[in-house]
Amino acid sequence: MKSTVEHLSPTRVRINVEVPFDELKPNFDRAYRKLAQQVKIPGFRPGKAPARILESRLGRGVVLDEVVNEAIPAKYSEAVSAEEVRPLSRPEIEVTQIEDGVSLAFTAEVDVRPEITLPDGSDIMVTVDAVDVSDDDVTEQLDGLRARFGTLTGVDRAAATDDFVVVDLSATVDGEDVEEAATTGLSYQIGSGGLVDGIDEALTGLSTGESATFATTLVAGEFAEKQAEVLVKVTAVKQRDLPDADDEFAQLASEFDTLDELTTDLRERLGKAKRMQQASQARDKVLEVLVERTEVPLPVSVLDAEIEVRQHDAIHAFDHDQDKFGEWLAEQGKTREEFDADAREEAERSVKTQLVLDAVADAEEVGVSDMELTQQIVAQAQRYGVPPEEFLQRAQQSGQLGAVYADVRRGKALVTIVRQATVTDGSGGAIDLREFLGDPDSDNDAELDAESENDTADTDPGADTDDGSSATDQQPAAAKA
């Protein structure tokens, strides 16, 4: 087999392949066996008809079609490997010559990873917020813990913010009762925001036995997006009494013997949480600088696919009803043209980010261990609320396991750049992120890896896509001649 590559643009190539017929003998053998099973020929058992009989009955052209359709995907893959081409999309294949007994020739045009010149990671400098754990922060955490051990006591007064009330609810839209909005004996904390808009204001100041009406827009059910009149009646008002913050409470709520030990632990936990936020901020800022400083030609088909996914996902939420989608855009004060422009901008940023991180991963020779891949599968499964085994099966069936692998690899690549960058706080002091970036010589880098895919492909094993692959993780599948 002979193959050559023509570079049509920085992101697209044409692969020219010529295959001597001698190399196609295994393909002919398989074609004859397959056709013999499919065709009934008098005098021969199924699958036993000789090649010359098959050709005389079906014609040489049918055999050649079968051979070519089977051979092209394999020969395309051979050429991609031999020429070290890195495809990003499905190839557009054209058979240019079939000279029976001599050779088969075809071309394959495909988008490929562009050559990317990366900036020096050590030249990247970013500033993040300083870590400051105040006494108020610790008190807020302690009060939250006390609230978990609080008791509710009925009170004979008007309800106020943070009080718990037991309410009966009913609603009407244009005089028609909304059945799904009717309930009795519902417990609700004023100010928690867990119900419909306007209820907190309506409840504040009501005492047991009192009621109020207010207008709100329903967000779900048969009357979603409709203006409703809601009647709320208070049947009980309760306040939450908190236990005293003392050593006895510390022993009740924790493994510590004293309140001082408990508050010290809370302060340390808050500090670690804020340092984690600091590390995440550093990651995001380093990524922003890295992408901004890198020139990346974007493959047209990959970009178009990413735009199409974003547009599809947006209208999918409205059951693909263009009119409803248009009404929603109007409510947001946006035209379809503005939405499409935003979708293109977001897609360009996403594809560029993925390509840059892939280039970093290549340059740094980043690998992914089985344990890291498993951890990512478990995390994604939890996100979608399915068992890991089910997520894995869906990912394999939809061809997205490669995208999961790519997400982990990109996350690790980003961590390598953050390690190289200079990160300081507002006062100019250097920030030590080793607690979250881990040991560069370890296979399992750090806690930050789990969050390092914010701007990379997000893998949903049940995503409604044509081929189940992310824009820059598509595996080529040769088209039939």
Fold and architecture overview:
- With about 475 residues, the protein is of the alpha+beta class.
- It has helices at about 25-40, 50-60, 60-80, 135-150, 200-205, 245-255, 260-290, 300-315, 320-330, 335-365, 370-385, 390-400, 400-420, 435; strands spanning about 1-10, 10-20, 90-100, 105-110, 125, 150-155, 165-175, 175, 185-190, 210-215, 225-240, 420-425.
- A hairpin with a 3-residue loop joins strand 3 and strand 4.
- The longest helix is centred in the middle third of the chain and has 34 residues, at about 260-290.
Outline:
By secondary structure, the protein is of the alpha+beta class.
Write the layout of secondary structure elements.
Blueprint: E1 2-9, E2 12-20, H1 25-38, H2 51-58, H3 60-82, E3 92-99, E4 103-111, E5 125-127, H4 135-148, E6 151-154, E7 164-173, E8 176-177, E9 183-189, H5 199-203, E10 211-217, E11 227-241, H6 247-253, H7 259-292, H8 300-316, H9 322-331, H10 336-363, H11 370-384, H12 388-398, H13 401-420, E12 422-424, H14 434-437
Parallel strand pairs: 5-12
Antiparallel strand pairs: 1-2, 2-4, 3-4, 6-11, 7-8, 7-9, 7-11, 10-11
Query: In DSSP terms, counting alpha (H) and pi (I) runs of 4 or more, how many helices?
Result: 14
Structural category: alpha+beta
Instruction: Give the class-level CATH name of the largest domain.
Output: Mainly Alpha
Q: What is the strand content? A: 15-25%
Shape: extended
Distance between the termini: 18 Å
Query: What is the subunit arrangement here?
Result: single chain
> At the fourth CATH level, what is the homologous superfamily of the largest domain?
Trigger factor, C-terminal domain
User: Uncertain runs with pLDDT below 50, 5 residues or more?
Assistant: 453-471, 474-481
Q: What is the number of independent domains? A: 3
The count of DSSP E runs of length 2 or more, i.e. the number of strands, is 12
- The CATH architecture classification of the largest domain is Orthogonal Bundle
User: Over the alpha carbons, how many angstroms does the gyration radius reach?
Assistant: 32 Å
Order of helices and strands: EEHHHEEEHEEEEHEEHHHHHHHHEH
Q: What is the makeup of the main sheet?
A: 6 strands, antiparallel
Give the fraction of residues assigned to helices: 40-55%
CATH topology of the largest domain: Trigger factor, domain 2
